[in-house]
Amino acid sequence: MYRSLVALAAVSAVVAGTAAPARAATAPDRLAVLASFTQTTAASYQAWTAARLDRDAYDYFDWGTDYCSASPDRPLGFDFRLACWRHDFGYHNYKIAGDFGANKNRIDVALYTDLKRKCATYPSAARPGCLTLAWVYYRAVSIFGTLAPVDPAEVTAGAGNVS
């Protein structure tokens, strides 16, 4: 009987470990996950994208977005929505954590990096215009990004999936 219980517990632990991602139970764990989702690297962007597609596993984060706020989400047809969403994600969640000031610059640079990566997906003739707009968006958030606090009433919670 004892061996059966031990075996059952071991199988349950393995199944539980593979059934869902680990939860970030403590504030420092959540800050570590938040930091991993807001770096300038492509790997960080990909990790954030995977989490965005599985938001229930990361329900302790604010996933709301208004995309590019008062700026066009698709200026001249360039789709900046996901880059703006990740930028909103960083702003919202670092403000909630009370650590926004120490992370704002990195989040803004990550936006610019994400926008440049997006621009690289367009035909070479279109890239200069896209890169110019990416720079304008980056400069706007780097200068004006702290003027107004995020009002949760204005944020659309659980924005739909964007491909």
Plain-language structure description:
- The chain is mostly helical.
- It has 6 helices and no strands.
- Helix 4 packs antiparallel against helix 5 (100-119).
- The termini are far apart.
- The model is unreliable at 1-21 and 154-163 (pLDDT under 50).
Keywords for this entry:
0% strand; disordered N terminus; mainly alpha; disordered C terminus; 163 residues
Which word captures the global form? globular
Q: How far apart are the termini?
A: 52 Å
Strand content: under 5%
CA radius of gyration: 19 Å
Structural class: mainly alpha
Helical content stands at 55-70%
Question: Major sheet: size, sense and barrel closure?
Answer: none
Q: Total number of helical segments? A: 6
Task: Outline the low-pLDDT stretches.
Answer: 1-21, 154-163
Pattern of helices and strands: HHHHHH
Based on DSSP secondary structure assignment, what is the total number of beta strands?
A: 0
Average pLDDT confidence is: 83
Write a concise synopsis of the structure shown.
The chain has 163 residues and is mainly α. The protein has helices spanning 2-19, 27-37, 42-53, 81-97, 100-119, 127-144.
Write the layout of secondary structure elements.
Elements: H1 2-19, H2 27-37, H3 42-53, H4 81-97, H5 100-119, H6 127-144
Helix pairs in contact: 2-4, 4-5, 5-6
